[in-house]
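Much of what follows relies on a compact textual record of a protein's fold. The record below shows the convention in full:
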Amino acid sequence: MKPDNNTGIKRIVRATGFSMKGLAAAWKHEAAFRQELMLAIILLPTALLINVSIIEKLLLIMTIFIVLITELLNSAVEAVVDRVSSEHHPLSGQAKDIASAAVFISLALCGLTWAIILGNWLL
């Protein structure tokens, strides 16, 4: 039986530490994550400053976070695939390509959402 020393606040603190470690690793090792995070640093204040409804602001902000989340998951898939084997295998390529496609779709969603809302705002 597992000891009960990882519950409550201690578990939350440890989980937060692991999350910060993951963010630091993504920042250090993933150029795409760094680029998307820099874009988020510009777009988040922009979303808050433009004169659109609260729902539109929320949509703009949510799509930015969807891109970041998807990029983190893509990086995790790539790390696991690379850890399992350095040999080329069709399933390894397929896993990486599918994860990359998820990032592409999240970026398309973000771009489309921003284009529609900003387009409406500018008109």
Remarks:
- Helices lie at 8-29, 31-49, 54-84, 90-122.
- The two ends are 64 Å apart (CA to CA).
- The mean pLDDT is 93.
